[in-house]
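User: structure tokens for Tetratricopeptide repeat protein, please.
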Amino acid sequence: MPQVEKKINKKVSKIIPFIPDGDFYFTKGVEAFQNRKFDIAIKWMKKAVDMKPKEPLYLCQLSVIYTEVGAYHSANQLLTDVLHTTNYIDCYYLIANNYAHLGLLNDAKKYANSYLEKEPDGDFSEDAKNLLHVIEFDDDEDDEFELDDEDELLIYQETAFYHMEKQEWEEAIPVLEEMMMIFPEYAMAKHDYSQALFFSGNQEKAVNFQLDMLKEDPNSLYCHTNLALFYYEQNNKEAYTKHIQVLRNVYPIHEQQKLRIAVTFARTAQYEEAYHRFLSLTKGKLKNHSSYFRWYSISAYHIGEPSKALALWEEGCKRHPYLAKESGPWNA
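Assistant: Done. Predicted tokens:
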């Protein structure tokens, strides 16, 4: 036995202990991130940062993971810390992207422009330009509506939303008409009004109403979604194609706008496109929208995902009991 112990001890003495460094943890974090194991990726990347607290590459990669899981404030805090210690230009674009997701469009625009000024041909230059284009598109639709009596507007918004989500078109019309009279600058009421008109039988008036709005604002997202839907229902393929093609190239920042596009694709039988758009939505922000569950489940069913369609439909019926009165995705 002593001879055996000597041999073992001799072998053990030759083993070189492996002490992981920051690059090891960073590589493991990137691998986990690429496999979409975000919780594990964050743990590995934090270990990398602990080893090299001022390494901008580690901090930026951790911020990217935070962005992916929706922790935009945490991501920007890391990136701001990097900018305080080093001139890592990529941070400007990454910060702009996070601000855009938070809906802080002026800040997003400022940082995107700063990136392009410092790196006009940088790795993120095209992304920054695209982001600015999307922000400009969103600005046209999402200007803050400043009112002395915002509470009154909120009551109208909630009432109209209630009827629109239940597809109670005739009940929605008088609410929206009053809303447009009291708040004439609030464009969303006009878009909802035209949709309620169309589905209550006033198709020609609805189409003309939206065409007039489109002349005033050719970039209006809601004009294109409504007109695509109207022309599809009227079997006007040429006009429908024109407006649906616009939507194929639009990827808004805000969840409400992303939902509107996803629903439009679903309602016009573009189920593959609709399904992929729904996948990008944050359910937690849209659980009060029965349209999310209705059209997501219908899209899932039509692309061959019946189990997912059923799960979505059952969850939707629990949150919005009136959905149970509808026929479900399998009959849509």
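User: Anything notable?

Assistant: Residues 4-14, 140-148 have pLDDT under 50 and may be disordered.
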